[in-house]
């Protein structure tokens, strides 16, 4: 079975991020160059998680990004995240989105691939907490 890759910010013992509880989700500006992998996960830990267990108890959300030479914004609403997932597949086992207390105490950010084989070069321009994007109703 394919394994996983993970890129993460510094140790949760040292890191603190701004309060994200007033936002509706996370915006990633990413591009996926020279790749045949298009499925990724964005995750974060908060201060309630023992820092030794952060990798295994983080809140994760799936996102797809097609190969491209330009950066694309991807919005992930908090409702897409869950801290209930299989350690062997990365798939959600229950929907359990973060609460305001979790979003006020983020300690680590992570990007994953899980259960897929292939090559990728995912480039990240920025990550920010944001309100939901506006949509036009026609």
What does this structure look like?
- The protein has 138 residues and is mostly beta strands.
- It contains two helices and seven strands, in the order βββαββαββ.
- Strands 1-6-3-4 form a four-stranded antiparallel sheet. The protein has a three-stranded antiparallel sheet with strand order 5-2-7, with no helix packed on it.
- The longest helix has 4 residues.
- The model has no long low-confidence stretch (mean pLDDT 88).
What profile does the largest beta sheet have? Answer: 4 strands, antiparallel
Q: What is the CA–CA distance across the termini?
A: 45 Å
> What is the string of SSEs from the N terminus onward?
EEEHEEHEE
Shape: globular
| Computed structural class | mainly beta
Total count of helical runs of at least 4 residues: 2
Strand order of the largest sheet: 1-6-3-4
Characteristics:
single chain; 138 residues; mainly beta; three-stranded antiparallel sheet; 7 strands; 38% strand
Short synopsis of the structure:
The protein is mostly beta strands and 138 residues long. It has helices at 54-57, 100-103, and strands spanning 4-8, 25-33, 39-46, 59-64, 72-77, 106-114, 121-130. It has a four-stranded antiparallel β-sheet.
């Amino acid at each position: 079975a394919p394994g996983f890759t993970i890129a993460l910010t510094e140790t949760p013992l040292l890191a603190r991020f701004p309060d994200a509880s007033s936002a509706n989700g996370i915006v990633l500006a990413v591009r996926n160059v020279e790749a045949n992998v298009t499925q990724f996960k964005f995750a974060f830990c908060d201060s309630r998680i023992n820092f030794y267990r952060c990798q295994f108890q983080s809140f994760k959300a799936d996102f797809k990004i097609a190969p491209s030479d330009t950066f694309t914004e991807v919005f992930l609403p908090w409702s897409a995240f869950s801290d209930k997932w299989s350690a062997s597949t990365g798939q959600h086992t229950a929907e359990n989105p973060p609460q305001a207390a979790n979003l006020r105490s983020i300690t680590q950010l992570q990007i994953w691939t899980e259960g897929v084989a292939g090559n990728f070069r995912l480039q990240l321009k920025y990550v920010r907490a944001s309100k939901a994007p506006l949509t036009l109703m026609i």
